[in-house]
Amino acid sequence: MIQPKDRLLFLLELLNRETDEEHPITVAEIIERLNAEDFTATRKTVAKDIDTLLAHGVDVVCNKSRQNKYFIGNRAFELPELTLLVDAVQAAKFISVKQSRKLIEKLSALTSIHHADRLNRQLYVEKQVKSVNEKVFYTVDLLQTAIQTKRQVTFQYFEYTAAKKKVLKHGGQVYAFSPYALLWNNDSYYALGFSESHGKVVSFRVDRMSNPKLTELAAAPKPKDFRVEEYNKSVFSMYDEETRTVTLCCENSLMKSIIDRFGTKVKTTVVDKEHFSAMVEVSVSPTFFGWVVGFGGRMEIVAPEDVAERYLNLLRGIVGG
Question: Among residues 146, 152, 115, 130, which one has the least CA distance to residue 22?
């Protein structure tokens, strides 16, 4: 026997999935849909059910006219918020194409079918550079558990040969690792923590971890000066090299690039009408030098002297002199 609560749940689902501000539904249409599902419905029962939904915090908006029309107003996520989340899922390299589609499907279910169509029309996930590791979510959950319980994890790490063949790094070495945080950088997901084999805090790409396991061993304690935000600003590569304070001389047009990379609190000084200097904490590595080269001479390393010399030697090697 159909109960009134069943009718109420159907009405809630109907409003959630098929209505929004641009697509309201009339009382007559609601009654027709309810009767089609063998629910007894009249204008009086519909009004009573809508009052019940309103009393329980559901934002059912009524456009009063000759035929009252109803739709769901405020939702847990508005369309611009869902669009942002869908874009983030599409851009995230660590999420495979298959997982991206599943996540976007779940996000689309949080709005009306009409807005869901808008989200789906914007999909370009197959054209993105995506991970091939389908076990990323499992790995993330394992790492989160390790962080919360302060335990070590072990895993192997893979890379690619020149023939694009996936192989385990260092002959299948098993890394013992104490994760401290998960870090999203350049659309990739990294685990940040202490590596026993490196003897220091390093980062690993989560989607390149293989055979991760949670151990019962206590994690290595965090260094007292460890700050995730500071590490995020200084890291330019998967394995960070020596971190140094470097002074850059930049054309004024590059201020946005400096702020994008190091934040608004970066220390800068006006040099002349066309240039400024910036003191930044970076991991002095080929990847950092490549970042500087990418500005085509509009950015120079001026200090410390040994870092500047390493950079110049790299440039000489590139131009063959």
Answer: 115
Answer yes or no: are the C-beta atoms of 271 and 279 closer than 8 Å: no
In angstroms, the Cα distances linking 295 to 186, 254, 270, 286 are 18, 9, 19, 15
Give me the CATH number covering residue 149.
2.30.30
Domain that holds residue 256: 243-319
Residue 80: left if φ>0, alpha if ψ -120 to 50, beta else—which one?
alpha
Distance CA 88, CA 83 (A): 9
User: 63: closest CA among 18, 112, 27?
Assistant: 27
Q: Is 235 within the bounds of a domain?
A: no
- How many angstroms separate the CA atoms of 28 and 294, rounded? 63
What radius of gyration do the chain's Cα atoms show?
A: 28
Alpha-carbon distances of 25 from 11, 14, 108, rounded to whole Å: 11, 10, 20
Last residue of a domain, one of 127, 144, 165: 127
Look at residue 34 and give its three-state secondary structure.
helix
| DSSP annotation string for 105-133 | HHHHTTS-HHHHHHHHHT--GGGS-----
Provide the number of structural domains found in the chain.
Answer: 4
Taking only the tens place, the pLDDT of each residue in 150-183 is 999 999 998 877 776 888 988 999 999 999 998 8
Among residues of the chain, what percentage have pLDDT more than 90? Answer: 48
Last residue of a domain, one of 161, 189, 222: 222
Both tokens of 223, joined, read 């260094």
Q: Are residues 289 and 313 in the same domain?
A: yes
> What does the pLDDT look like over 111-137, one tens digit per residue?
999 998 888 765 555 555 566 666 888
Same domain, 119 and 145: no
Give the phi and the psi of residue 204 in degrees, each rounded to 5.
-125, 140
pLDDT at position 2 over 80: no
Question: Tokens 């140094």 correspond to what residue?
Answer: 244
